[in-house]
Amino acid sequence: MSRFSLAALIRHAFAGNTGWQPQWRAAVPKPAYDVVIVGAGGHGLATAYYLASEHGLRNIAVVERGWLGGGNTGRNTTILRSNYLWPESQGLYEHALKLWEGLSRALNYNVMYSPRGVMMLAHNHHDVQVARRHIHANRLSGIDNEWLTPAQAKAFCPLLNTAADIRYPILGAALQRRGGTARHDAVAWGFARAASALGVDIIENCEVTAITRDAAGAVAGVETTRGAIRAKRVGVVAAGHTSVLMAMAGVRMPLESFPLQALVSEPVKPAMPCVVMSNTIHAYMSQSDKGEMVIGAGTDVYTSYSQAGGLHIAAHTLEAICELFPAVRRLRMLRNWAGIVDVTPDRSPIIGLTPVPGLFVNCGWGTGGFKATPGSGHVFAHTIATGSPHPINAGFTLDRFRTGRLIDEAAAAAVAH
Amino acid sequence: MTAFRLPSGGRIDRGRTLRFRFDGRSYTGYPGDTLASALLANGVHLMGRSFKYHRPRGPVSAGAEEPNALVAVGAGARHTPNLRATQVELYDGLSATSQNRWPSLAFDAGAAGGLLAPLLGAGFYYKTFMAPGGAWHRLYEPAIRRAAGLGTVPGGPDPDTYTQRYAHCDVLVVGAGPAGLAAALAASANGARVFLVDEQAECGGGLLAEPEALIEGKAAAAWLAEALAALAARPGVTILPRTTAFGCFAQNFVGLAERLTDHLAAPLPGLARERLWKLRAGRVVLATGAIERPLVFAANDRPGIMLAGAARGYLARWAVKPGTRAVLAVADDSGYAAARDLARAGVAIAAIAELRPHVACETFGLPVRPATAVVGSIGRLRVAAADLRPIGGDSVGGGGVERVPCDLLLMAGGWTPSLHLFSQARGKPVFDAARAMYLPGEHRPGEAPDGLASAGACRGVFGLAACLEDGYAAGEARGGPATGRRFAVSGDLPPAGGFEGLVPGSPARKAFVDFQNDVQAADITQAVREGFRSIEHVKRYTTTGMATDQGKTSNINALAIAAGALGRPMPAVGLTTFRMPYTPVTFGSFAGHARGELFEPVRRTPMHAWAQARGAVFEDVGQWQRAHHFPAPGEAAADAVARECRAVRQRAGLFDASTLGKIEVVGPDAAAFLDRLYTNSWARLAPGRCRYGLMLNEAGFVMDDGVVGRLAADRFHVTTTSSGAAAVLHHMEDYLQTEFSDLRCWLTSVTEQWAVIAVQGPRARAIVAPLVEGVDLAAFAHMSVAECRVAGFPARLFRVSFTGELGFEINVPAGHGQAVWEAVWAQGKAHGLEPYGTEAMHVLRAEKGYIVVGQDTDGTVTPDDLGLSWAIGKAKPDFVGRRSLTRPDMLAEGRMQLVGLLTDAASAPLEEGAQITAAPPRTGMAAIGHVTSAYRSATLGRPIALALLADGRARIGQTVHIPMPGGSLAATVAGPVFHDPEGARLDG
Q1: How confident is the model at residue B397 (pLDDT cuts 50, 70, 90)?
Q2: pTM over 0.90
Q3: Which residues of A touch B119 (CB under 8 A)?
Q4: Looking at beta carbons, which residues of chain B come within 8 Å of A413?
Q5: What are the chain B neighbours of A311 within 8 Å (beta carbons)?
Q6: B905 burial class (0-12, 13-18, 19+ CB within 10 angstroms)?
Q7: Which of A264, B178, B237, B952 is buried most deeply by CB count within 10 Å?
Q8: What is the pLDDT of residue B584?
Q9: B354 and B379: one domain?
Q10: Cis peptide preceding B103, ω within 30 of 0
């Protein structure tokens, strides 16, 4: 892998930009690998990268039905934060945030981690209680999260309507300054490039059609539209389609898949310096480096695999956006899309072993998986490489739905991820 | 008359002159003009700057596909950025400004960045700016953000209003060009309800720019006028110009954005600016036409370079000569129609560079050079010459470049059918290799949108006669006889031919594919070289097709160049997804009337006005507004709450509990149903008795609670928490309809049918008794319910307590709430009755250790955690959540249990949400619980708190620590009941 740098840019510019090499190899599937990762989204690619870079495995394939990064990695609103309530979640998301802080340099790919601050609004007494509880819990854990008065919130985000006479006035906000955004495509491409350079085969347009098991019931490999691949360890990282894949191995997953929408405005000059979230009135917004207002909507009420959500869901979000930011009411929706998110009963992910020996699963990220990408890949790689969970993902078992040891952030706080 | 306006013709009203400003300079135009046509008539081509390199740009099109001529219109809060000048209708006094330039449009310092263009190729920002220490966020990113963006955010809250409408119709026709008009004529022939919508101010589409065509012996414009008149005369037909069908959803549900006032100089006050239609159509006919493709050659982006069809439109529709001396780069027959029309309007045709070796169509004696490409242009703020080069072929060999002076360079690269809505509706585009275009194909099996048809150019049918006939056939009713109606047309020159990709002989550098985002052919080949093989990757890496025009003019060229670089056929590279909306739609339109007070309804109780008149301070609780406390003049909130609490404990308080959720559960299986939904047993609850009910979710955690009264064997009055009412009803209905459909019972929300007046305190009985008829209050035990009359009105009287005092809750029909409230108030005066608000209610219940679901619980709490195991019906075979309660971790040690916390009597109350540690805290120490409720208790003269604490009941008497920013506090663990633990006061 030739290194990216300003010097390289200049050198290539003088050469007419004809000397660039493919960022990842277009691999052809081999008959067998030590590990096959199913799903070349951010989490899957990160898993492969850390398997190669930290666990010395080289014979790894990542198989992808479509084009890499084309699922929820390329469809989310790119918010990063770690100010979660429960210790398990704090551990996981803070681990990820620390990796984000050094990721561009680690991958030699600018993933544009931008700690512009994530501000979560409180509109009523209950919201205030919940925000304070998070702030106290985070402070004890050494995670930054601070309370802002409405005036401080307005100073941090001047576009915000903090008037006292609006329908749901803002009573304050919890701010995590290290939270922010990153460039989603760059995350997928950066992990792909770095993994490929370490020998990982990334195989696009390769749909898994079966998960094969040996006589003892352990994983033996996968069958794909590009042929059968043997592997004693298979990691499924397929977001909204995890249930379908795991059913191929006879494992029924506690997941429901819903369309989740997002949308952007036409690009405008910088006006929105941070990320603002309001869980009470269902809206969040930030501004991309390109200038588009990036807005997340809710999931549809009904399960579906259709990558298009209901018009009323997007409209409801824009009602809230226009209330919070009345100056953007005249901006226009440029593009609206949806992804399929997989939701567990406690809305926390499942990262770990399955009843099938050799089969591992990383799923259930619901509406908030992007922020965890490097951390998720890191601990999942550990889990696959060693056969047992990393302490950070030890609580995120499939088994917890049987034992009752749930990690329910949303119930605790009515907070969307 | 402005310099480039023809002396006659056009569809403008020359009887009136409009004045307008662009970048501060004054110009004139006519009604019917767009901002673009009026500026072109004044000789102004330079209207904008591109996104990345700030290159000078003029309009390339005359319509919605415009990538270049983006302007801001209006000022202050009505400032609207990023409007296409080709779509902005002119009105007197219009003021527009250019964007993304400094200090001026003609001299833009940002254009200096163009010098660095070789450094700023596709994805350059992924390869640098990685220096440590947050330099990206602090240094590079702000600079990039400032350079990016186009227009600016309006200067304040939008003063305009937006409206919405739902509608149904038999047939929706999208696009009022020849195919759409014919479809609407056919569809409405038998009285069907037909919507005909078109994004332009004027219906007609391509017919508006066919000066030479005759349809059934009439000039195209005359035929158009007659067709529109015929449609308008049919009662079932609704014609909506200025209306964009922006989104096509399942089952022929279509979103329409209608612009109502933007074209008016002085709209009537109160008129909505836009209307969003949510239309459900029996059938949809898409007649969305086709968009002309630019040719990709070096410096194909200068002002004065535009699409041939656009130039033709400016001539015919607005009588504007877009230049004086034109060169045409042609790969499609329709280019000759433009050349003909320009020549007849007096524009000199310097050369027609025909990319094809032979031309089959009429060329009108114009100077055609076959097998010749335009491979470059010169000029600064306006094209000054085109570079022509013969290309290899059977007639002409390679040769040198000839520079042909011109001030207008037109591109006829062929037409791309508009598949946007078809694709949004889940139609599958198929590639027609012979014509090198995507066309609507079969719908996906099983997802066929019933009755969605394409007609005319959007399905590759070109030429007026063919479009009219195709449209007519598509519009005819299903199942009826097809008439096979023919249309006699002469004088049009149908498109044929076309080219996609980089023009042969042109450099790839500065050969723009996506004008707005400055994506060059070289960027696309570089992306392919860097391993981006899917068109979706190419799009994201280069940003081609991601500008505000969403690639309407660029996608096919980008696809062709990527395919060429990959050495694969176009369909093998894929087609990017067409996403809603077709063109940008104002946020305000989606929000409609849901703003301010109407954003979400404000729910007020029947006694709201009384509380307001008493000076109550209200708080939002969900959608409800509830009286928080009732301060006397000058009284501090804390003092008011303390006074209200004392009144309840010593005499009596009056509380508006109307917001409690209320569900009437009726039917022979009502008790059985409640047995399955609540933890408690209901079968043996006698009519006339109440019970505290606890509801769990499937995971076994407390979801809601409330008192349930049995009115009769088959009738229960269920109360829920105020904020949980809707969720509980939904939960119940979900189970009743999907799991317990064998049970005969019915659920009715009656929250708003009953006003609830709570009278609590030792004098409560004395106050209520004189008003009650039909119940002997002396024999009316705690947890009883009776139907009776109170203050002369029918009532459901509950004897319940959420304060620990003797208490009644009087339910009366909401319309009588205020009257009964006032009767109780009058009765209570002699007893020292005082109204109390939600804060006092919270303090009083916390003194008794009564939980508030959502505050003292958080979705992770079991009945046992709360000390409520007694509420579980042990004999019941099952209830929702029961199985979950038996999971090992639900029974394990260390669960969070509800306890009380006592701090120093003189201290301030603890903070709700504060964490609890077992030892003096330090960072990283695990919390063992948190404070859920904390108040100053006037009754006890000290602060009290409730907490969820690990193994809390075993820690009673121990000291725990509360880490706060300024240091930690210590507290003693106690039981959760602080006041009257024996419950002696319930009987007054």
Answers
A1: very low
A2: yes
A3: 9-10, 13
A4: 858
A5: 247, 249, 253, 255, 278
A6: exposed
A7: B178
A8: 98
A9: yes
A10: yes
Collapsing DSSP to helix, strand or coil, B496 comes out as coil
- Residue A410: pLDDT band by 50, 70, 90 thresholds? confident
pLDDT computed for residue A412 by the predictor: 56
Assigned domain for B589 exists = no
Query: Cβ of B496: how many Cβ atoms within 10 Å?
Result: 15
**pLDDT number for residue B117:** 87
pLDDT band at residue A414 using 50, 70 and 90 as cut-offs: very low
pLDDT digits (tens, 9 = 90+) for B128-167: 999 877 889 999 999 999 989 999 999 999 999 999 999 9
* Residues in chain A closer than 8 A to B592 (CB atoms): 315, 319
- Strands B162-174 and B194-197, by their bridges, are parallel
Q: Does B925 touch chain A (CB under 8 A)?
A: yes
- If asked whether residues B313 and B207 sit together in one domain, one would say no
Taking residues B190-214, what's their average pLDDT?
96
Buried b (16+ CB within 10 A) or exposed e, B210-230: bbebbbeeebbbebbeebbee
Sheet bearing B218-219, strands edge to edge: B218-219, B214-215, B489-490
Query: Is the CB of residue A302 less than 8 Å away from at least one CB of chain B?
Result: no
The reply to whether B110 touches chain A by the CB within 8 Å rule is no
Task: Give me the residue from A17, A167, A337 closest to B522, CB to CB.
Answer: A17
Tell me which residues of chain A, numbers 384 to 413, contact chain B at a CB-CB cutoff of 8 Å.
Answer: 400, 402-406, 408, 410-413
Residues of A in contact with B160 (CB under 8 A): 330
B241 and B106 belong to one structural domain: no
Q: Please give the Cα distance from A359 to A357 (Å, whole number).
A: 6
Average pLDDT over residues B353-364: 95
Secondary structure (DSSP) of A224-240: ETTEEEEEEEEEE--GG
- Give the A window 182-221 contacts with B, CB below 8 Å: 183, 185-186, 189-190, 204
Rounded to the nearest integer, the mean pLDDT of chain B is 95
pLDDT in tens, B949-968: 999 999 999 999 999 998 99
Shared-domain flag, residues B390 and B314? yes
Amino acid code (one letter) for B49: R
Average pLDDT over residues B236-247: 98
Q: Do A330 and B154 touch (CB under 8 A)?
A: yes
Closest A-chain CA to B857: A412
The residue type at B98: S
So what's the pLDDT on residue A417? 40
A68, A281, A313, A319: which to substitute to probe chain B, counting the most B Cβ within 10 Å? A319
Residue B420 tokens, joined? 């946007």
CATH number, residue B818:
3.30.1360.120
Residues B308 and B286 in one domain: no
| One-letter amino acid for residue B982 of the chain | E
Kindly report, residue by residue over B673-721, the tens digit of the pLDDT: 999 999 999 999 999 999 999 999 999 999 999 999 999 999 999 999 9
Q: Do A327 and B80 touch (CB under 8 A)?
A: no
Residues 149-188 of A with CB under 8 A from B: 159, 161, 166-169, 180, 183, 185-186
CATH code: domain of residue B361? 3.50.50.60
**What is the interface size between A and B, counted as CB pairs within 8 Å?**
323
A42's tokens: 């951010």
Whether residue B459 contacts residue B175, with contact meaning beta carbons closer than 8 Å, is answered with no
Measured between CA atoms, the residue of chain A closest to residue B129 is A110
Q: Which domain holds residue B506?
A: 500-584
Residue at B227 is within a domain: yes
Nearest chain A Cα distance for residue B369, angstroms: 32
Calculate mean pLDDT across residues B839-861: 96
Mean pLDDT, to the nearest integer, of B632-657?
98
Q: How many residues does chain A have?
A: 417
Q: Is the pLDDT of residue B279 over 50?
A: yes
What six digits make up the tokens of A182? 């990153």
Indicate if B222 and B246 belong to the same structural domain. Answer: yes
Please say if the pLDDT value at position B438 is more than 60. Answer: yes
Is the per-residue pLDDT at B305 higher than 80?
yes
Q: Is residue B694 part of a domain?
A: yes
